[in-house]
Design goal:
By secondary structure, the protein is mostly helical. Helix content is about 80%, strand content about 0%.
Amino acid sequence: MTRLVARHVTLTVLPVVIGIAAGYVFARRQPSCGSLVGPLFAAKCGRMIVQYQLLIQTGVTLALALLATMIGVWLERRRLRRATPAAAPPPPAAA
C-alpha cells in the first residue's frame, strides 16, 4: 500500500515541479528588460516576462499532469490485469 501511495504522489507532484522549473529557466534566460526595450518601457517589459513565465508554468504543468494521469491509468490497469487470475477453461462436455 505504501508503494502505491508513493507512486501516485510522485506522479502527481512531478508535473508541478517540472512546470515551476521550466518557468524559472525561461525567466532566467531572458536578458534584462532595460537592454531589450530601453529604460522607458522596462517596467512594462518586466510584467510581460512574468506573464510569459506564468503561461509557461501553467502550460507545462497541464501537459505533464495529463501525461501523469495517462501513466497512472496505465499502471493501474496493468496492476489489475496481473492481480486478477485468468478465467478457468470450461469443463469438457460429457458425451
